[in-house]
């Protein structure tokens, strides 16, 4: 079984499906648990509707439930779930690949984390941006859409496909620094408080919360601009005498014209209250899956890593990276046969996709 201190890096033979599953579960858990707070943040970022940002978080939620129904804080969550799963699967998969490449190239950990975060964010946002458009339009006060599907269809018919990616450049300009700050901060907190690289749920949760809070504060003005680009508030367009707001620069000017400098920080408190715990949840869930899958207990003399279709038997007595302890320094014919039998049995019991 694997050394507990080695949990942080998944085995090289781990199939992408394992990483993707762990990432998808982490992403869905992150967004669903904190979704009501995210809804309040979106409403507080409204530039014209005073009803949406003149009261506190608790009062807004309670008033919303009273006036609009008890399920209103979850309206649009299905669009978020549809995007969060595949988006986070690619995100964490890219981070793990980047960590492996950085280690092989002997790059400093914080540089490796930062570069991997850039590529991971580009993949993540390509899937998540359309989901964000639908989700935020469903979250706004007096949203005219009956469902997420109705919103998707209406936006496509009236504004075209580009409406779903109107904020993509702004999202990248915000999320790349956000994710770099978050991933680097998470790694720094981890390395300073957990130098032995052991599985410590409390440390992972704390590191995620600190990373989410720091990154949220730094990128708050960009998030306000992204919300305006996604929602295209009719009152704002009317006040500015525009048909639409396009591009980050125009959104930046529109926010200042409507609300001044303070407008760039509308919704900061709920954003921190959303991002800090949601980032902590996401990384805690992901670290749990890494720990569980990497240190799965041996049942019937089988290590979990035999699930892999990428095993290497080039070294005598060693299969992959973690079962060489079965026959140190060499392997008898019987032990080699046992390993082959184990591989054959697990491959039959758990079929994996032929192409990942």
Walk me through this protein's architecture:
This protein has 356 residues and is mainly alpha-helical. It folds into two domains: 4-294, Mitochondrial carrier fold (Alpha/alpha barrel); 304-349. It has helices at 16-33, 35-44, 57-68, 77-104, 109-139, 148-159, 168-193, 201-218, 220-231, 234-240, 248-259, 268-294, 333-349. The model is unreliable at 1-7, 297-336 and 342-356 (pLDDT under 50).
As a whole number of angstroms, the C-alpha radius of gyration is 23 Å
Looking at the overall shape, the CATH architecture of the largest domain is Alpha/alpha barrel
CATH C-level class of the largest domain: Mainly Alpha
| Total helical segments | 13
Share of helix, binned? 55-70%
Helix and strand run: HHHHHHHHHHHHH
Which of globular, elongated, flat, extended, rod-shaped describes the shape? Answer: globular
Indicate the proportion of strand residues.
under 5%
Low-pLDDT ranges: 1-7, 297-336, 342-356
The overall pLDDT, averaged over residues, is 76
The termini sit apart by 26 Å
- Largest β sheet strand count, sense and barrel closure: none
Q: Give the oligomer, counting copies of the same chain as homo and different chains as hetero.
A: single chain
Count the beta strands. Answer: 0
Task: Find the CATH superfamily of the largest domain.
Answer: Mitochondrial carrier domain
- The fold-level CATH name of the largest domain is Mitochondrial carrier fold
Structural class, by secondary structure, is mainly alpha
Total domain units: 2
